[in-house]
Amino acid sequence: MEEQKQLTSQESLQLIQQMIQIAKQEQKDDGKGWILWGWLLFAASVFTFINIKLRWVPTYFFWNAFGIVTMCFFFYTTGKYFFFKKTKGVRTYFKKTKSARTYTGDLLQKLDIGFFISIMFIVIAINIGSLSPMVFFPLLVNIYGFRILIHGAALNFKPWVVGAFITWFFGLIGLFVKTFDWVMLTHAAAVLCGYIIPGHIANNEFKKTKPMAFNKNIFSV
Amino acid sequence: MSSKKPNRWLLIKIYLVFKDLDPILHSQLRLAIVSLLISVKEAEFTFLKEKTNATAGNISVQINKLREAGYIDVIKQFKDNYPQTICKITPAGIKAFELYVKNLHSYLSVDVNVKINIKK
User: Fold this and answer.
1) Which pTM was predicted?
2) For residue B30, which residues of chain A lie inside 8 Å, CB to CB?
3) Could you report the per-residue pLDDT of A185-205, keeping only the tens digit for each?
4) Domain limits of chain A?
5) For testing the chain B interface, which of A3, A19, A20, A83 should be mutated: the one with the most B CBs within 10 Å?
6) Is the ipTM beyond the 0.90 threshold?
7) Does B39 touch chain A if contact means CB atoms closer than 8 Å?
């Protein structure tokens, strides 16, 4: 067994600080999910706007395509979990890199479950005809804003907090516009400010922070 | 010269503070493990090993000491046919860590007082 080094009070505090900093790094969001979904939602709304003007295909074609992509993603993730995890090769491919659970991570996971259930509620509402598409999208944006704000507050990341309020602002405008093409534009603007831009900022910050490990040299300085 | 000697009461205070520092936590690797565990809900053995840069054998011994002191819970299980060890800080561990940090702070303030006293 290695001999355990006895610490001075200063070194102890330094060590605690360093370890807490390392653990905090585990909670950082790389923003990739936000960027991916952001661009998908943005593309769907912008193409729908263009489609309304140019009449290429039926109005909701791009949203249906988005729905298919979402379903594929859903089946891929659930399939990966249930069917592939015991196969050694695939297991290695999908190997979890993070091996620590944080309170913030758990909270955000529950928030995401709540978010997708809320989305499902309004998707069902629009499909049974009890909700107009003119109201559906601003409502959707309202839920985006809620999710973005909680994420930003939990991770103490200002671009998301600011993005949440901008998202709500565009959601509110969406409630008052008269035509569906403008609803699509407000939706695209909300996604751009709430998902895409903060997502890219988070991704850049994540790339800048190198993985940390305990540095024994701090005591020799 | 007598004026350069530290105050006797301060020396007694230092002795008492030092005495208060928990010997289980006042060691480099054990303190590193507890500091990591205090910031997360639970962590795998591999995570602790990676973040503390310690050897598997050494970290295993220190985890055992912390578990025996009741500061951490160790759950050994199998995940997809692979052994997995999960460590989690206990309420007693949280309390001990808080007390340790509190004592460190009071020691540091005493330390500063002594230095000022010696300079005088």
Assistant:
1) 0.76
2) 4
3) 999 999 999 999 999 999 998
4) 103-204
5) A19
6) no
7) yes
